[in-house]
Amino acid sequence: MAIEVRIPTILRTYTDGAKAVEGNGDTLADLFADLESRHTGIRERIVDGDQLRRFVNVYLNDEDVRFLDGISTKLSDGDNVTILPAVAGGMR
């Protein structure tokens, strides 16, 4: 099962600069474990224990997985996963 994972700029150091990588897994948790096996260190930047980090948003085919089943969300062949860290700051 091939799943495209879009990687934000801040995490591309883990993917040798790749904007997108392929991964496999029946759930998001499985996908993140698969990514970790090839891109050491990336999982801990996305997941804290058994849940998504507070300031990391993950989208499955443009749907926020927090409104689905979190990291237990089921995946299908051809799905697109986007990892998007929250951005804060600016001027008053």
From TrEMBL:
Coiled-coil intervals: none
Name of this protein: MoaD/ThiS family protein
Gene3D superfamilies linked: 3.10.20.30
Membrane-crossing segments per the record: none
Superkingdom, taxonomy of origin: Bacteria
Classification via InterPro entries: Beta-grasp_dom_sf, Mopterin_synth/thiamin_S_b, Sulfur_Carrier/Prot_Modifier, ThiS/MoaD-like
Upper taxonomic lineage: Bacteria, Bacillati, Actinomycetota, Actinomycetes, Kitasatosporales
